[in-house]
């Protein structure tokens, strides 16, 4: 076990956007990136950095120990327990905590389960403080005021880390209202960053759902004029409620068909869109027979020098030029975040 000398932070991320998290850390002067792992970015925080301001990360933790030689057999369990025991001298008392809990994950197959890792490490972390350890076995949920530790293993290396916030960063306080198929906020934040909003004035989401993409865009570029449409009035109500909770600048929300947008030609600088997949939210209206009408409308309303950033599930739509793509893992599927420009008309 190696103590995490010069304590470093671990940003957890959706699989596929780790490089985008690293870019946010660097461009926001939050720290120096040490390396990327499966769903993780390790970095050394800058002094006084507001780590809880990371928007593309699912969570941020402070590493307490790095454990080498963690194999695939069950000898890994006492090794991890020993690493947690070695932390006893540096663990503070935490008198007000409602116990502690541990969440574990690993890459590849192992001869032990995540619950065995959690229990081995959690029992040792709780011992010196006298805190109750709350196991997650059998679907049990720890109390909300429990200290949250995480163990992640990739290859033969594990990290034991402590969450900084009371809850994961992806649980945005503004999301007081939701609808089926709502987009994961860090993915929406990554889409907003890819949209290069610096010189944009207007941004449109034609399938806005609960408003996540536009609220994340507004957090990045507050002077934007955001407009969101959705076929479902309940989604528009949720989006408006979330925007109010976020304290965001005025938005334009409207019930509308993404295949027949009430928007003039070429007047939108950026489009952010997560089209209906057909799993949780079935396409309706003009999109009921396919997404062709959506992409025709995006091309129509987008300015000639505009950008569209779309979460696409069935390939890149025709009529666009691809600038970059990032494949991500969401809900068991592997869509791509695609940055698109309108293709030039022939002739």
Question: What does the model show?
Answer:
With 347 residues, the chain is an alpha/beta fold. It folds into 2 domains: 162 residues, VC0802-like (2-Layer Sandwich); 158 residues, Rossmann fold (3-Layer(aba) Sandwich). It has 7 helices and 15 strands. Strands 1, 2, 3, 4, 5, 6, 7 and 8 form an 8-stranded mixed beta sheet that branches. Strands 11-10-9-12-13-15-14 form a 7-stranded mixed beta sheet. Helix 2 runs parallel beside helix 3 and helix 4 crosses helix 5. The longest helix is centred in the C-terminal third of the chain and has 14 residues. The radius of gyration is 22 Å and the shape is elongated.
Pick out its properties.
347 residues, 22% helix, Rossmann fold, VC0802-like, alpha/beta, 8-stranded mixed beta sheet, 7 helices, 15 strands, 7-stranded mixed beta sheet
Q: Can you give me a brief rundown of this structure?
A:
The protein has 347 residues and is α/β, with parallel strands linked by helices. The chain has helices spanning 18-27, 76-85, 114-126, 185-194, 212-220, 233-246, 292-301; strands spanning 2-3, 9-12, 31-37, 40-45, 59-67, 100-106, 147-154, 157-163, 202-205, 225-230, 252-255, 268-273, 302-312, 320-327, 336-342.
Q: Tell me, rounded to a whole number, the average pLDDT.
A: 93
Largest sheet: 8 strands, mixed
Oligomer: single chain
Overall number of structural domains: 2
Q: Which segments are poorly predicted (pLDDT under 50) over 5 or more consecutive residues?
A: none
The whole-angstrom Rg is: 22 Å
Percent of sequence in beta strands:
25-35%
Give the helices and strands as they follow along the chain. Answer: EEHEEEHEHEEHEHEHEEHEEE
Overall geometric form: elongated
Alpha carbon gap, first and last residue: 66 Å
Secondary structure category: alpha/beta
CATH topological fold name of the largest domain? VC0802-like
For the record, what CATH class of the largest domain applies?
Alpha Beta
The total of helices stands at: 7
Number of beta strands: 15
